[in-house]
Design goal:
The chain is an alpha+beta fold. The protein is built from four helices and four strands. It has helices at residues 6-30, 45-52, 56-64, 81-107; strands at residues 36-37, 40-43, 71-73, 76-80. The chain has a four-stranded antiparallel β-sheet with strand order 1-2-4-3. The N and C termini lie far apart (93 Å).
Length: 108
């Protein structure tokens, strides 16, 4: 078996590293951070459950009662980020108001 000299080894290592760099940059460019429709970021079930601190069954109930708007694409439910934030603002504010009212009633 023939031994490599230092220059040949360095040349091959540079070629290998160049290929790794090209492959890594191609992956980054091809993979979007989050799907978007008309410039609006879309969230999947897991993202919404984490944002709202709810389980999958509760999210399913929100879909069934049309409380939270969603779109079906490729047999998966997707939620517009704007709709989820609006849902949070509306329902969390309602809950705060209800809790304050309950506290004031209980103090009387």
């Amino acid at each position: 078996m023939e031994q490599l000299d230092k220059d040949t080894f360095v040349m091959w290592m540079e070629r290998v590293m160049e290929r790794f760099d090209r492959q890594e940059s191609a992956k980054v460019e091809e993979t979007p951070l989050r799907p978007m429709i008309d410039g609006v970021p879309m969230l999947d079930n897991q993202d919404v459950c984490q944002m709202l601190h709810i389980n999958k069954r509760t999210l399913q109930r929100y879909r069934a009662t049309k409380t939270l708007p969603f779109e079906m694409m490729y047999n998966r439910a997707w939620y517009r980020e704007v709709d989820v934030l609006e849902f949070m603002k509306l329902h969390f504010n309602d809950n705060l108001i209800r809790k304050r009212e309950q506290k004031s009633k209980s103090k009387k």
